[in-house]
Write a structure and sequence with these properties.
The chain has about 350 residues and is α+β, with helices and mostly antiparallel strands. Helix content is about 35%, strand content about 15%. It is globular. It starts with 19 loop residues before the first helix and ends with a helix. The N terminus is likely disordered.
Amino acid sequence: MMPIRRPEGSQAPTARVLTGQLARMVIPCRRLAGFLLVGIPAITADVASVRGVDTQYYKDSGQVLTRQLLHRSAVEHVAARLQNLLLQNGRRAFGEEEGQKEVRFTFAVHELDAKVASFVHNRTGELWQAAAQLAGTKELCVLMDRGFSKDPGDPETHWHRDDEAIGVHRVHPELRTVHAWIPLRAMGREMGTLQYLVGTHRRVFGWLENFLASMWGWEFAWFMTASKVQDDGLEVGDVAWHDGWVLHSAGANSGRAVRDGLAVSFAFCNGPDGCAGSAAPISAVNTTCRITEWLFDSEWRARHREGENDYAKNLIQEPFLHQAARFVWRSVVGGAGGLFVHWIVVNGCCSKRKEA
């Protein structure tokens, strides 16, 4: 795989940590436009929220960490509202056995609090503006928003692709998503921040990746060829972004505090036909995607609210026929390799002995 070159002068995402002093210098420079009617400080869009180098890195790698993108006071207001909501409404997710879990999951958090709804659905806010920059279009809608809480001792979240997990790729081939993960408190990687396999969001791969995938599957190829990075040193106001097709996970929480985060997912169409309206909002007022109700039906949402822990894993698995074909291909390649080695031995070493 061709290495992804970061812009000159920039560092790896795990090392790009602004000091608290610099963060305090940045925040006052932003002009607050007042307060929303619901009482959350407005997040203005009069400042370029995402640097061009970050946008390019996101396109190349499938993820990027934007420092102090949001106003700290706005996120703190949301965090205060969500602290009890996530504790009361979080459902145990991805447990192999009864009583186990990888994370507590709360779907459609905006339905539980009007202030959170205003934060998530604010079209003129910096979160929306940044999502539009990364997506390359202003035609966005909110696909979903979730709260994720990792308690101390929770293990690593399984590796997955968001679009694959919820079936976005089955709705329309040109439907794309960009996901914002907002830390609700300062945290380091030891608390289980997101980690990514860089570049796995691509639709086209090189000969080495294709060969490895043909032999042992795409998951093997990705882990063998892609570098892994993990967000670190997150502060309130930072946003970790990732493409819906990039392979990612979250580390285990080996810290002493709960890791709370708010994830907001935006959908957009990457094709000229508008993806048959699948990336369109319900209305000018309701910015929720039209396909959200189809992907997450009302019955499932009702069970989730009532306390059902049914958010199952969606592992990277192939159909049996693909696995069988790959086994046959490995056998053929292995057999050919054996014959080649035998030919070298017979026509190389042995022929020299006869001449001697």
